[in-house]
Design brief:
Length: 349
Amino acid sequence: MADRKLKATLFALLAAAFYALNVPFSKRLLQEVPPTLMASFLYFGAGAGVGILYLLHWREEQREDRLAGEDLPYTVGMVALDILAPIFLMLGISIGSSANASLLGNFEIVATALIALLVFGEKVSPRLWTAITLITISSVILSFEGSGSFRFSTGSIFVLLAAVCWGLENNCTRRISQKSTYQIVTIKGLCCGMGSFVIASVIGESLPGVKHVVLAMILGFAAYGLSIFMYIRAQRDLGAAKTSAYYSAAPFIGAFLAFVVNGERLTVTYLVGLLFMAAGTAFVAADTLVCSHTHVHTHQITHTHDGTTHTHTVTHEHSHNHIGQSHGHDHRHNERILLREIHSAHTGR
């Protein structure tokens, strides 16, 4: 189990690293590619790239590994939300700062955790709640523009809408994460790409040159295809809320790339938002490092006196909190004693 959790954690961090390429490089491509078409080509790149990999692996899959009829509602929800989210994100990036957009992407953690708790009953620890609060504060700070201004940034609103859509989508994907990852990403990429393309055609966006289409699809394969693939694999063992928390590394990497790739300058608002975001991420890391285990031990004690046989069933519950690989444990004992009296004939003993 420990090896699986470690592997899942690695997948989550790699997913974050690949997705971090999205915002700064999309910002550059959006100078030539309209927002909705950009979202379409990103997903087409993801679906086509992972689809090719799927052709090389599909014979290794069992029939029960593939999506079935009962998975249809979550699959439809996943696709619909993934059509809306990148369109909102591309609109936000085209209007506002890609550095702010990268950090605001962390609001996805808040949305994912709240939906996981309220809709799907997934446990959210106090440490993760603290992280959610700090990340929310950071998101609010980054959403206002101008010193002393209370005017909401339109670009930030679109980025937050994208984060909420992806939070709900993460929970839909979590319900089918045990099925074929190749199949899920291929369906998601091709269907979302087609959905965005239809929307782009309806609203009259113009097709860019072939060179920019190819570049967008290559970016989509890495930032969406490989990222989604590893994210789903991580969800299998970590759950939606925890995987999303690990994913908080992506905006920090993306923000750094925004300065390197796009030459965006640091602002006081950005640095204050970064401080709160870093504090929230620290609580996420603390929540991840502390593993709780509960062991239940049951034994029976039987004795006879005055012609009555007494059988005591004693259950001990031990809760252990492990930090990393440390051998220090916090033990809490909760003993419940159930008494059964069995009356028997006097044996003369």
